[in-house]
Amino acid sequence: MSPFLMRTSRALKQESGFSLLEVLLSVAVVAILAGVSVPLYQSFQIHSDLDEAAATFVHALRRAQTLAMTGSGDSVWGVAAQSGSITVFRGASYVLRGSSTDETFDVSPMLSITGVWEIVFSKVEGHPSVTGSTIFTSSAGEARTITINEAGTVLY
Description:
four-stranded antiparallel sheet
């Protein structure tokens, strides 16, 4: 074997693998990236949960109003918002409803709901039984407000 190949072979054997410093630096970079990204992800998740709950509630309100206006089931229709779910129901109230026709939508159970939580729409006209605002609030204090007026118009 030539002297050049022997030197090259020896140099490769001595240079193989990672040093402890390189491994520690790699672990530190990964830890820093994780430390920055986890709070950003949590913030994004809160915004997403709030937006999803608001959009679902608005959709449920419009669905119940449409069902009431078309006279579906020859009944009034309503919406009830509870922790973890939003339900479109047939009947004069959520408590007195026939649950066989319920349409339930899941929302994050980490959100609190305040304000008007049950709205029933009249047949044909589609006027709401109550007016006011429903507020979805996250544990971080962020909120989304959905308001329904006497004409049944939903604002958010």
